[in-house]
Amino acid sequence: MKNMLSVVLPAYNEGLMIGKTCRVLREVLEGAGIPYELVLVNDGSSDNTWEEILKAGHKDPAVLGVRFSRNFGKEAAVFAGMAQASGDVVAVMDCDLQHPPETLIEMYALWKQGYEVIEGVKKSRGRESFLHKESAGFFYGIMSKVTGINMQNASDFKMMDRQVVDNILAMPERNMFFRATSSWVGFRTTSVEFEVREREAGESKWSTWSLVKYAFTNIVAFTTLPLQFVTVAGGICFLGSLLLIIYSLVQYFSGHAVEGYTTTLLVLLLIGSAIMLSLGIIGYYIAKIYEEVKRRPRYIVSRIMRGGEDVSETARHDGR
After folding, report:
1. Cβ contacts of residue 237 below 8 Å, gap of 6+?
2. Is residue 160 left, alpha or beta, with left meaning phi > 0 and alpha meaning psi from -120 to 50?
3. What are 108-117's pLDDT values in tens digits?
4. What backbone phi and psi angles, to 5 degrees, belong to 61?
5. Structure letter (DSSP) for residue 171
6. What is the pTM of this model?
């Protein structure tokens, strides 16, 4: 089908929202006359998400359901959805309708004008805690410096031309940060602002700790900036040691004794902490290298359904 839009929807314990999300997207896209398919990826949910996807497929043959063998994470679900999408243009959005479906129409119109990547940019971060907003601001500040692209209010809500999707899927690395990678590949890009809506049902799957882990994992996956900390920490320790040596020599030649125990203890604690932290950062990078060289797939698909029928044998399994 010419100019078909594939909408990729990662879903983890979203059983309460699947039916409404599919219904709203169908109404919006059919009303705008946009040919579409909905690719819902069940990321090892423990609720009735898969059953709801099957129900949606029976009601709408444009629904393609992808089921993981277990939970592999949102990034894997996004890539699995893009691998199964067959549209000329592919959109990625959350399954909880916090990304407004009406914005897809504006994005689609921009794609028709020749833009190949249409980024969804948040006007505001909605109702988030102060700590969450500050942490997100710090993380995206780092990512903006690394990529050279303003990612301060970036999101996973975006639309990409088929050529862009194919280039992203061709990248061999296991650990990939989709939000930054879609900007890194380049192509003709524009952005659309949207208001984050409140979740209608269910709870957010992101705790503060999971967000911290997600942020650090993606920083390591996309940049070597944390390794520069090791060099900086080494430089700071060297300068501190140099100043302490000078201070000790001045005290010695002026006939004053240097208080040894406290000074030695502080120096050992400072250097020991810097070494352990540096080893931790280096070790994390080595762990990610180990994961890459094993060449395990990003995800494992156990079943693929379209319109209520099993199409697992004929669909693409591009977990690599």
Report:
1. 270, 271, 274
2. beta
3. 999 888 888 8
4. -65, -10
5. -
6. 0.69
